[in-house]
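A reminder before we start the practical. When you read a complex entry, don't treat the lines as separate problems. The point of joint prediction is that each chain is placed relative to the others, so the output describes one connected object in space. Small molecules and nucleic acid strands, if listed, are placed in the same frame. In the example below there are two entries. Take a minute to note the order of the lines before looking further.
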Amino acid sequence: MIRELTKTSLWLVLLLALLLPVSALAMENEDCLGCHNDSDMVGEELFINAQVFDHTVHAEMGCASCHDNVTEEHPDDGLTPAKAGCLDCHENINEDYAGSVHANNASCGDCHNPHQVRGLTEVSGHDLNQQCAVCHESADMVQQHDEWLPQANLHIAKLPCISCHTESDDYEIVLYIIQKESDKVLGDFELSALDDLQKLGGEKGAQGVIDLNGDDFISLTELRTFHRNPANEDLRLQATLMPSDVSHKIEILEDRYDCSYCHAAGPEAVQTSYVALPTAGGGYQRIDVEKGAVLDALYGTPDFYMMGATRNASMNIIGLLIILGGLVMPIGHGTLRFFTRKNRKH
Amino acid sequence: MAEKKRIYLQPKPVRIWHWLNALGIVTLIVSGAQIRFPEHVSVLGSDYKSVILLHNTAGFVVAISFSIWFFYYTFVARNMHKIYLPSRDDLQSGLLRQAKFYFLTYFLGWQNPHHPTPENKFNPMQKSAYLAIMFVLVPLVSLTGILLTNIEPLRNLILMIGGMKILVGMHFLLACSLCAFLFTHVYLATLGHTPLAYFKPMFNGWEEIEEHEDAVTSH
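Here is the predicted structure of the whole assembly.
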């Protein structure tokens, strides 16, 4: 619904652009990027990464819809190009945003680069936290959260800040492919880049590394095969818990403070998951994963376990059998003991 | 005629150690159950975080008490092998004899073939059981627990083991085995000449032994 509304504003903007004086339209995106995608020509400060920009929804609107007074003579016309305000088009954000602490502390531009915008489903958890790290340095955050959050380093590394600091109707598990940085035995891992995955996937491309039959759906079998394939020895899947909706009302939520929100939700809560693969534009694209994959005993998502929520049912049954085994002696022996008690009267 | 004889079986440090472990392990089992099944178990209240902290604390207490036990018997008393390692004799005939007692002659009213002395506290079955518990179960459950409380710093080690799921699976199943042991352990402790006979030495150190004439002939 909200998206629809903004789509309408996109058309309005395009219409407006058509009605603008010809001079402003004289330059197309490519013309602007001819200079602005070349840092030798305009310098680092004014550099716009065309490869990234072209994959954003803002690219469809064109440079001129936000910089509407750039003329033929630019940059020699002495005019400072105008820059549209985000809220002109994204009015719907304002309600949440204006009510949050950030209204007076962080502007849209502090968290977003207008030339690199992406939807929530197209960014990695790591990128999300980079937005916040500009002001809330990660090491400081680990230290502050450590005062009340066990294993704060793990939570801050694994969770987008917004999973705890914004409301969402639903949450989902997103899996990213990571790979060893070096050949060291205990070496660190990093997010796999598109090139690396393309090399591994061969003809099937990056997606072929994990979506073996290319049906845009990752079954539990495919996940297990991925993890057991010796060729993928240096690859793992790193998981994170992401909200399904974006809210700009960033706040402190009580049910995250008492941990119950994530850890005590029970296994029904975490059924939806995706694998996110890197795309050419530097973003990510999600592929659906079979429901309940994160609950698999061992090889579905071997590195993701959220206490209280992702326990495995077969494991529970084995555990129960072991405990019942411990009752054989008291119950079995105890019964016989009861019936033969007379033998031990001296 | 039955004659009462008392021997000092469990010195004070051993008793303290035993009850500390008992408290620790029961706490671990109850809090562990709540951590794994939060929507079903809420014995310790609804504050999940406190339950985790309690579990971690109890875990460290048991792990440290285990280490003290290990170092004491291996390096100070140096009689670990005598007390806990079944001897050749135990393996050849003792185990069978003890099993025969528990599962057959006990019901017929015979005496326990094993007579505890401070140097030879455990019967052959106890020795084997404690060997498995103290050298396999407890160390493994503690080590997996330590990894689980330091996931981020030890991440690469966890990956080498095979990942979080395998680690948690091991921790859980080992804990279930300890729980199973606990039931058996408490039950077997009631098999003295009176149900409480074996509990007493764990409180005051002294075991009362009934000396029957037929005690020696029973094996």
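Discuss with your neighbour: Residues 18-25 of chain A have pLDDT under 50 and may be disordered. What might explain this?
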